[in-house]
User: Fold these one by one.
Assistant:
Number 1:
Amino acid sequence: MTALIEARNICVRVGGQEVLHDVSMQIAPREIVTILGPNGSGKSTLLRALLGILPVSHGAVSQRPGLRIGYMPQKLHIDRTMPLSASRFLSLPGRHTQAETQAMLTRVGVPEVADRPMTGLSGGQFQRVLLARALLTRPELLVLDEPTQGLDQPGEAAFYRLIDEVRDETGAAVLMVSHDLHVVMSASDRVICLNGHICCEGTPRVVSNAPEYRALFGLGTQGALALYQHVHDHDHTHDDHTHDHDHAHAHDDKHGHHHHAG
Amino acid sequence: MITIMRMRTMTSMGTIIMLDDFLFRALLAGVGVALATGPLGAFVVWRRMAYFGDSTAHAAILGVALALALDLPIGLGTLVVSLGVAVAVATLAARGWAMDTTLGVLAHSALAFGLLAASFVPEARTDLSAYLFGDILAVSRTDLAFIWLGALAVVALLVWRWSALLTATLNEDLAAASGINPDRERLVLTLALALTVAVALKVVGALLIAAMLIIPAAAARGLARSPEAMAVLASVVGAAAVAGGLGLSLHMDTPAGPSIVAVAAVAFALVAGLSRRRG
């Protein structure tokens, strides 16, 4: 197996609900893969299943033996009651020398935060420290769950540039989750559209022209507008609407979902 | 008994006189408890488990009553029941029950059933207040050995799992991605908590154990710059509170357990005042 990590026909249930259905994917060395999908489409769930955090109810996930993964979770709330400096955070759980942590903080552009408490960092500094922690394990695969959450647009662009540089320097593959289209299009080798199952996948250009993608995100739109025009995927049957699914009903259904989309 | 006899013949007279002194035994017992409650209390504070400690401690009363009724060692009874309640809470919470409801139901029913059960056991009825409020001045050599063995076991457990516990406390996904099982670490803390409750029951009593866990750790937060420093300082504050509380009890003839907690609370207020002025 040349893939770093592979999922074969996995289904994942969370709280009795099937969140992912029959998903198969793999990541090759050095590849940047982005998982794209609306809120609640199971993006984070897929990452967590690939990492072995969540059990799969069907299918299997296999990792190349000895694979080193650097993981950056979506949300990390650090309780103010815990006194934790950035450099101490970087040594959890594996210890690193002060020289190593300082060098890595410098690499991600925040050399000044080493002795500062994590709870006092700005959003951008915090995300960079999280990335530094993921990089310290010298990963062959970086897994980033919405890494630019809470950053402004210039901050976001700078962060994606940093990830790109890191990939070139270390040769690590990158698997990330996003719901913003414009950034993803330029920064990825391959895009996977997810909505409970894989709707479509391929290079950014191929995917952006795929009808499934357009159905999921709207036609040629970006950002917030895309989410408003989000149309429910037709493979994705609703329990309460499965029978007499005629045109009028489908139309109602669509209108109903405008609320959820926003 | 044999070891104590041998100790008598082998150790110097000075040590024997010290251990014979009830006040010195009380101090040693309190310091032993503070050793365990310091680092464990830090986790209780970080994980917002304050009420969890409370319910485990309340359940210990049921353990006391059952142990007396079945003629078993009291330490064993409190350990088993505390552990049972702690595991029940963790299991129910994992199944999606609201944490405060689960704790409220289990803590107070365990306390109520404990008090009911104690009323059927004559011995328990007489010294029930000793278990509710602690009786540190009546600590025996056997109690002392039990307290220190338990406290050292708790500290050893926490030191051994330190990095994993800290990572799992910070974020369970982060821990799981690093190959740490968050459920296992939670179980380690639950076990340490049950052990600490069993050990501390005699010293501060079931009603004040949670205070001994939280107040020193909260005071240490204002002084510490790293998780490790906070854990150690919490033990130091706890030990100082024991010494101060015993002194207070001696001079003012106040109950020992509440005196210890009161001194810890004053220490917390001082630190909080200081760090506010500094910051």
Number 2:
Amino acid sequence: MAEATIVRVNSLAAVSRDSANPPRASLAVLPDAAKLVFRGRPPSVGAAAEAFGVELPQTANRFSEAGPRKAYWLGPDEWLLEAIGQDSSELFSAMAERLASHSCSLVDVSHRSDSMEIRGPMSEYVLNHGCPLDLSERAFPIGMCTRTILGKSPIILSRTEREVFHLDVWRSFSPYVWLLLDDARREFLDDESARSPT
Amino acid sequence: MLLIKCPFCGPRPELEFSYGGQAHIARPKDPASLDDEAWAEYLYIRSNSKGLHAERWRHIHGCARFFNVQRNTVSDAIVSTYKIGEEPPKPVEPGLEERSSRSGAAL
């Protein structure tokens, strides 16, 4: 009997293929990652950080990173742990083992969402078409992350560089979010290089 | 759009929040000892105050935590926000306390 193989298809694969990409607000699909949601109180927080290899930020709405791994503060006792390019079941079982003696929760949410990036000097402006947050660098500095709303979709928004934002969107909402941003940046399509294939 | 100050995340747009009803309503410790009237009072009767009102809100599209808000039901002005378990701050505007005293809730 043939063995069944499950191939993960990024929910943005189809919708991103034909987008023209104006450099003032360019969109890109980010690579798949293992994503775990950790919830717990202080004794287990340190253990989780040790097991994951990245400090879990105690400051509200901040993320910390080490190499391909990031830990996002989502709530006072809740973090999203993201490891780009890693197999989620491996990471999950390794962490679950280290946390077995602690009272906490660890949930594998890798297949719940896909990530995209918006880059360029107009990215704040384009995001503000659907997100009412103040995205100026003073109010939303590099290293900040938060759950919020974009249009009709809940997202996790983070700023990795001055002109680069990452969005984590649930799979069923992600084509909608992509098209919303694509529509919002249409005014920049007169950019010379936007017409060239990516 | 109203800005509501989440005690964890700071000022955020109103659409990130959802309303959670009147605050500071403690579940009776021993429900079995209550008569129907007292139980119905706990379940259904709320203050509907004109003026300062303590209520629960949830920052559902943010940190997802519940917290308490003191809001003036006449002007819709949010007077203060504070974490669950904290004492409500004293109202700044005089007169608001009396108007809401009918509720009997400890404001």
